[in-house]
Amino acid sequence: MSATLERALRARRDEGAKLLVPYVTGGLDEDWTQVLAAVVAAGADAVEVGIPFSDPVMDGPTIQEASTRALARGTTPASILADVRRAQVDVPVIVMTYYNLAYRMGDLRFARSLAAAGVSGAILPDLPLEESAVWEAEAAAAGVETILLAAPVTPDDRLALIAERSRGFVYGVSRMGITGERADLATSAGLMAKRLKAVTDRPVLIGFGISTPAQAVEVCMEADGVVVASALLRALLDGGGPEAAADFVGAMRAALDAG
Amino acid sequence: MTSLHPTPGMGEPSTSGRFGHFGGRFVPEALLPACLELEDAFRSAWADPAFRSELDALLRDYAGRPSPLTEARNLSRQLGVRVLLKRDELNHTGSHKINNVLGQALLAQRMGKHRLVAETGAGQHGVATATAAALFGFECIIYMGEVDTERQSLNVFRMNLLGAEVRPVSSGSRTLKDAVNEAMRDWVSSVETTHFCLGSVMGPHPYPWMVRELQRVIGDEAVVQCRALLDGGVPDVVVACVGGGSNAAGIFAGFVDTTARLVGVQPEGGAAIGRGLPGVVHGSASMLLQDEHGQVSEAHSVSAGLDYPGVGPEHAHLAAGGRAEYPSVGDAEVLEAFQLLGRTEGIIPALEPAHALAWVAREAGRAIPAGATVVVNLCGRGDKDVAHVAALLGRPTDAG
If exposure means fewest CB atoms within 10 Å of the residue's CB, which of A22, A65, B85, B364 is most exposed? Predict the structure, then answer.
């Protein structure tokens, strides 16, 4: 299966929809795949599954807490991928993790294990352009699209290169910083989306700190869609189950559809 | 002068920041422009005679360099090998860390950044960074694992006295590796105004190279001092402790193109070279203690400064090529060596260089032939460790 992620997202965008990609930490709880099913039913266009890493330097306290909890349950990359395969998610699944987990297994083997679980995209935030070429090639060979990140400090020439090499979509980081809920949307979020849209036809999604439906709507004035992670995980960490996740994603979906 | 060893020495890494298979720039996109900017700034500063002379003056007039090379006569008699101590514990702030920090502070000033963030384990790098920040008038935030703020509470107070804010880190193993994570998280949020003053030869390119260059003053001095003391000769063995490996890299850089055997001594519970596997964390590929899935393991050492599961990429490269060797020693041997140097030479070392001494004490007459000349990099003084060691030895210190 090649280019399933980008094809699916482009198709949704061409229908006029704004794209909504929720993030769930793999293995967070016993019922985590029910959370996946719930967010899909509530209107996710793709889902991002985090494979927890011991040292998540791009993540704030919420995702750190979720990672620690999942690792304490004995979660491994293999157990998460087995869960994903069994869950039969009917939108594209993207894995987000840190490079050492792929490096330890071997790039190609890791990419193949993603593909075998039905995963169509991968985000490795500690692989910038300078380090990602080998992984991108192995992932492509296995049929996995590598999504690259752009940051507000990325200069224009680099931004164009990132958009060109990224597959699936281009992930614009809303502000300088780590993941985490925010009361206010950074003004850099809209600018990030605008700069990316100017250089690429690929779907442009913005993430980091998109916490409320109003923020999602605001950022989608420029962007094709949003990734929501910490605010959703906060609801789960505070004891909410699949229903709470569905409510959260459903509210974002409704707001985005209403424009 | 021709090198007797055709093996590559310690030159510049490749354009991608590689030492052989190790190194690189495994950082989020948000930090990549800062890494490129830092590399450019360091390259131009290092080639600028004005920068070099300003740094040399600071090292001389503020830090107290050059540090002496001392014949350890009593210890030598006891061990049957000739021990020379490179006295970097006599530097201002009590360790070799000041060499690197003065260079980076000068560079931060040149780049127009007025806030320093740093990680610290034992607190020596934190104290050094806080010192430089005070001198240069910078804001300074030090991240330190909660476990370390407890076992090195004196250094926390010292940093506060110097005007730095110490932020205890309660995530993960609450030691050095988690302090690095937190410092990187700060940096990614503040990179436009802040310089990450990394304390060892680790992290993304250019740090491993830059920190080694800033520490090579130890080796450059020692090689000249040895020549004077040894009738133009070089020592048989050069020994230094290795956590991340900055003091070792600094002294090795002076001797890598000589016949001297280079030995980096690791703590048993943190022996990334030997017990680790290739991995990527904190911005570079190196040897790393980790589980089968790639989750980073916690290191364990009596010394907070060596309590780190990774090692600088250049050390992984020197080990792979066989130019340097990286044995390990246990906590008990380290505590013995810590006391030995005080009794024999009247010098209380830090627990970190006590690792290097422990290896020399163990291997004298074995891996080190009787009569051989050994230079030990005494990279820190033991004041910070006295209370901790007293507690470990069951000797209360608060009786009055």
Answer: A65
Q: What architecture does CATH give domain B18-60+97-207?
A: 3-Layer(aba) Sandwich (3.40)
Q: What is the CATH number of domain B65-94+216-393?
A: 3.40.50.1100
Identify all chain A residues contacting B171, using CB atoms and an 8 Å cutoff. 64, 68
Pairing of strands B283-288, B22-26: antiparallel
Of B25, B172, B279, nearest to A103 by CB-CB distance is B279
- Asked if omega into A52 is within 30° of 0 (cis), the reply is no
Q: Which residue on chain B is closest to A125 by alpha carbon?
A: B28
Instruction: Output the domain CATH number for residue A82.
Output: 3.20.20.70
* pTM for the structure as a whole: 0.96
**CA separation (Å) from B97 to B88, B100, B208?**
9, 6, 14
- In chain A, residues with a C-beta closer than 8 Å to the C-beta of B177 are 55
Q: How confident is the prediction along chain B (400 residues), in pLDDT tens digits per residue?
A: 344 443 458 999 999 999 999 999 999 999 999 999 999 999 999 999 999 999 999 999 999 999 999 999 999 999 999 999 999 999 999 999 999 999 999 999 999 999 999 999 889 999 999 999 999 999 999 999 998 998 788 899 999 999 999 999 998 888 899 999 999 999 999 999 999 999 999 999 999 999 999 999 999 999 999 999 999 999 999 999 999 999 999 999 999 999 999 999 999 999 999 999 999 999 999 999 999 999 999 998 898 889 899 999 999 999 999 999 999 999 999 999 999 999 999 999 999 999 999 999 999 999 999 999 999 999 999 998 998 899 999 987 654 3
